[in-house]
Design a protein that fits this description.
Strand 7 and strand 8 form a beta hairpin. The protein has a single domain, classed as Nucleoside Triphosphate Pyrophosphohydrolase, CATH 3.90.79.10. The N and C termini lie far apart (42 Å). With 183 residues, it is an alpha+beta fold. It is 24% helix and 34% strand. The chain contains four helices and nine strands; from the N terminus they run ββαββββαβββαα.
């Protein structure tokens, strides 16, 4: 099976679960989502120098949370992949962008995301800064993108929360608190 279809299983503290032989435990992505098994994830937030966040609108045919607005990009780690490499790879694939990224915090959440799927993720949040617009978006992942001010996003999350992914709503306040150190 291709590594991209696997997720790395973790405990509630974000530590890798290991097989008896010491290798990292994995599970097919869709199985993990059907069973709600804890796994590692990456979320990337790209800000411009006007302190706006680059959002993506998930593709209409995504396996969960279709057509919802979310952070710049997100993904699952491949087994034995360095977290920063995962974040960098995915930013390039989904948005055609490259910039310096920094991990600023982690969080975990458990949520029913529809279609009989459950997210149970230990998520590593990376931020970066770029004034570039996406060059080549991946249409299998993204149906649109926009820059948005933090004030507007904060108001939208209150006024119309169902337009946004669960994980963005869940971690936004912490992103806002942490990003103040970098802008």
């Amino acid at each position: 099976m291709d590594d991209e279809e696997l997720v790395v299983l973790v405990d509630s503290n974000g530590h890798d679960l290991l097989n008896a032989d010491g290798t990292v435990r994995t599970m097919p992505k869709m199985e993990a989502h059907r069973k709600g098994v804890g796994h590692r994830a990456i979320s990337v937030f790209i800000f411009n120098h006007a302190s706006e966040l680059l959002l993506q609108k998930r593709a209409l045919d995504k396996y969960h949370s279709p057509a919802k607005w979310t952070n710049t990009c997100c993904t699952h780690c491949r087994p034995d992949e360095i977290l920063l490499d995962t974040a960098t790879r995915r930013l390039g694939k989904e948005m055609g962008l490259g910039c310096e990224l920094r991990e600023i915090f982690t969080f975990s959440y458990h949520a029913d995301v529809g279609n009989g799927l459950i997210e149970n993720e230990f998520d590593h949040v990376f931020v970066g800064f770029s004034d570039e617009n996406p060059t080549t978006i991946d249409p299998t992942e993204i149906s649109g993108w926009k820059w948005i001010s933090m004030t507007s996003l904060e108001e939208n999350l209150i006024r119309d929360p169902e337009t946004y992914t669960y994980w963005l709503r869940y971690c936004f306040a912490e992103v806002l608190d942490n990003i103040k150190r970098y802008v």
